[in-house]
Fold this sequence. Notes:
Blueprint: H1 3-33, H2 56-59, H3 69-72, H4 76-99, H5 113-123, H6 132-145, H7 150-169, H8 175-196
Amino acid sequence: MTQKAKTEDYLKGGSLVLFVFVIVFYGCDYLASRKALFYKLYFAWENNIPFVPESFVIYYSIFIIPFLIPLFVKNKRQVNSITIKLISAIIISGFFFIFFPTILGYDNQDINPSLVKFNKIVTGNHNLFPSLHVALATIIIEALCKNTSKSNKWILLFFLLALSFSTLFTHQHHLLDVIGGFALAISLINLEKFFMREPTIRS
């Protein structure tokens, strides 16, 4: 597969994922905001998690991750695999955002009002469970780890861990949101492995 062909497949898949994300993520948040009932999916002790504004650097580094795909993936099949899993994660999350809208439970959302307001515009108000931030990052990084060295895998996994913690230290998500994001991603990854496994030939 030539670099040009791989880049074209990447751009097509990326454009489709972006389109679905914008429609589902912001559309669901709008529909959820019109509801009267919101769920509180957090623990009281989570208010002890410190608000660390510097964590937004790591938090928004998620926008860098998709650009790593063409540097690691080897063929169209892998690009399509990532695309399908990302879109699936977005659509599944959309159902939760609409039918199970949640709210943040942090008491100190007024520490930096302008920063909080900006993030509400970018991240929405009720798109919390499961964390798409975590789910999408996990799907992409798992795919990248298949095509790199052992040392790079540890770097990618450490980055994923830091990104996941950043959702807590920026007070954009709660612990169960993060767990839900991991669960969604791992479920889709394992589901793909199940359907793509080689059939067992019995003698």
